Known about the structure:
It is a single chain. The chain has 7 helices and 11 strands. It is of the alpha+beta class. A 7-stranded mixed beta sheet has the order 2-5-4-3-8-7-6, with helices on both faces. Strands 1-11-10-9 form a 4-stranded mixed beta sheet, covered by helices on one side.
Amino acid sequence: MHESNLFLDEAGIRKIYHEAFQDDQALITSTTTMVIDTHKLGLPNCQAILLDKKRGTIFTKRSTNMLVKKFISWQNFNFVLSTFIIGELYHDHSHRHIVPFVSGNQILLPTRGYVHSPASWIVQANLVDYCCLGQNKVGLQFSKHHGPEYIIPENSHQFTTIYANALIIAEVQIRMIEQLIADFPHRFIKDIHNKIRELFPQQVPQDINFHKITESFIDKIIEDVLQYSSSLIDEEPDEKYILQVKNAVKERQKRLR
């Protein structure tokens, strides 16, 4: 256990590094509290440090970007929806803002911008509270009945904005889901479940995957757009070209905004 109020400047990060154990297969999990970027510190075999309520402190060769991308790959939403919501919120280009990742209750808060260089990330579900300790210090509390365990040297106004944006994105997602749910009352759901199993038991859909369905939907939109644009010049789009565009779009969506 670290003493309360450990300041995570370079000296503080080096301190916890020397207390940590190495795991190059480490991932962000439900018990992770924070992922600390260390790529500029020259620590042996260490690109990131994970703070974990269950496992303790771990250092790994994986970068924070790699860890975050892996985490996002398991979620129902990627960065696209969060980026779109922020763009709508500010009515301008979302790249001007630091966009947190939100997929339902899976929320990652970057401590600063991450597009041009890896950043540290906080798992919001495990953040009990935070406090602004002056202009450039933020205290992080991960345990109840306890003061801030860690203090990060980040702009407090910027961090507050990032946190607020995360909650706004989550609120928009919730309202979107609530609008969908309104069309699916409990009695309707129960009736459909019962009827399809009674009348068409062999045709009950199996292994429904929201992420795969969303990807297929995006693929269909891409195909339709390419088909339409080609029709304007009386041509058919090449299948290889369609595949290239699909892959390019998927790679773009995997980027950290």
